[in-house]
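Researcher: For the record, we're logging two predictions in this thread. I'll number them. Prediction 1 follows.
Model: Prediction 1, sequence and structure:
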Amino acid sequence: MTEHSTSEAERQSIRTRLLTLFNESWKYFLVSAASLALDLVVYWTLIRVAGMHYLIANIVSVGSGLILNYALSIAFVFKQRRLRNRRAEFIGFVLIGLAGLAVNEWLVALFVGVLGFGVVPGKVAAAGGSFVFNFVARKLLLFTGTNPAAAPSDDNASMDADRA
């Protein structure tokens, strides 16, 4: 193999990876927008209708968005999966989501409690920071690998059947 053909193969590999990253990024953005819409409806309802404190409502609403985000991410966004065990993958997704929730909670507290934003504008502003954190962490830790949509292991049959 010549140096030129190796170089061309490397360039093609980089192009393919960048195209995959671009496609996953915009799809994840759309999935996150849907998840954020659910999150905001739950958040607003808990604050305005149920009278819940905005930081507690944020935790509950982020949880609802996280579940929707996982379901849509594995269905439409990420084709490569690092883990074959879906329970382990979901736990990792949730743990990253909890770290993202900490980022989001801190930003909501900053925007609403310190900077004086309204509760909904503060929540929307905070969503940008947690979006970037969650996408990068999930892509690097869960959805990068050589297993295109790795087949689930047998011990996950019940979880997969629940999703069907």
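Researcher: Logged. Prediction 2.
Model: Prediction 2, sequence and structure:
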Amino acid sequence: MLKKKNKKKVDMVDKPLNVGGRPPIFKTPQELETKIKEYFESCWIDKVVEITDKEGNVTTTNSRYQNQPYTIAGLASFLGFNSRQSLINYDTRKGFLDIIKKAKLKVEMNVEEYLLAGKNATGPIFWLKNHAHYADNQQVVGKDGGPVEIKIIYESEGKTHIFND
């Protein structure tokens, strides 16, 4: 006769659940928001500019320059993530969605401004196709916007043949 083994009951209330994976980088949304602000600030430098006029007078001003563009990959790296996707997936955590969406929007806006302010049209065209769903379409229309009429004309044995589409 087989006997059942006496199994001990485990009280799960006292034991933490092991959900696996890496512990979260940021414990609170406010901690993430602060670090995101640090990233955007790190992309700027302050420079002292000296301007000398014709008479030799020197004027000193402080100017602020963006020395590196905002990028999703740069943001993810600065925040300590291993990939862009890790940052994007972080928005599934409660309270983090709006903070990450706002940061991504700021990056997107900055990229748009760089692309549209430049003299090279390739960047804006690329961005419009990949983000604003524009497409290269070429539409050929006939007389008064109607369909194109095609006539095939060829000569054979001294005769002209015309075929209409």
